[in-house]
């Protein structure tokens, strides 16, 4: 499953290795994230409800708590959860699935830079 998501590379008779992304791939991942989130924000603005406001506000509080902790993994996951909530409340399931697929690569991109701020 990790190999199919592009997170591992299989080398026959050698094993599995974590995939390293080059600069072009990193740029592509963040460019796609920007496209998805920009579109989601426009949709969210048209569909903004008290429920969405409450959920996003609550997640910001969780994100602030995570930012104050020394747990880099938690900070990453709570940040991704905030962005996922925006896409969820944008009301397009395919857009949300595309983001969910992209988050696997985002973790590869973010983790080395985010673990020790």
Helix content bin: over 70%
The largest sheet is: 2 strands, antiparallel
Count of β-strands: 2
Distance between the termini: 30 Å
In terms of DSSP E residues, the strand content is: 5-15%
Name the shape in a single word: globular
Give the overall pLDDT as a whole number: 85
Low-confidence stretches: none
Radius of gyration, in Å, reads 16 Å
Q: Classify the secondary structure makeup into a structural class.
A: mainly alpha
Biggest sheet: strand arrangement = 1-2
Count of separate structural domains = 1
Helix count equals: 4
Written as H for each helix and E for each strand, in order along the chain, the element string is: EEHHHH
Question: How would you explain this protein's 3D organization?
Answer:
This protein is mainly α and 117 residues long. The chain has one domain (22-114). 73% of the residues lie in helices and 7% in strands. It has four helices and two strands, in the order ββαααα. It has a two-stranded antiparallel sheet. A hairpin with a 3-residue loop joins β1 (8-11) and β2. The longest helix is centred in the N-terminal third of the chain and has 25 residues, at 23-47. It is globular. The model has no long low-confidence stretch (mean pLDDT 85).
What is shown here, in short?
This protein has helices at 23-47, 50-68, 72-90, 93-114, and strands spanning 8-11, 15-18.
Name some characteristics of this structure.
117 residues, mainly alpha, two-stranded antiparallel ribbon
Q: Would you spell out the secondary-structure blueprint of this structure?
A:
Layout: E1 8-11, E2 15-18, H1 23-47, H2 50-68, H3 72-90, H4 93-114
Antiparallel strand pairs: 1-2
């Amino acid at each position: 499953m990790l190999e199919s998501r592009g997170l591992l590379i299989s080398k026959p008779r050698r094993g599995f290795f974590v995939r390293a992304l080059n600069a072009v791939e990193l740029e592509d991942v963040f460019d796609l994230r920007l496209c998805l989130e920009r579109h989601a924000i426009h949709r969210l603005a048209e569909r903004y409800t008290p429920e969405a406001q409450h959920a996003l506000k609550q997640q910001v509080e969780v994100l602030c708590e995570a930012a104050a902790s020394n747990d880099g993994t938690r900070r990453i996951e709570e940040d991704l959860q905030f962005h996922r909530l925006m896409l969820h409340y944008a009301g397009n399931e395919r857009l949300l699935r595309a983001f969910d697929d992209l988050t696997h690569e985002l973790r590869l991109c973010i983790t080395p830079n985010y673990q020790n701020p």
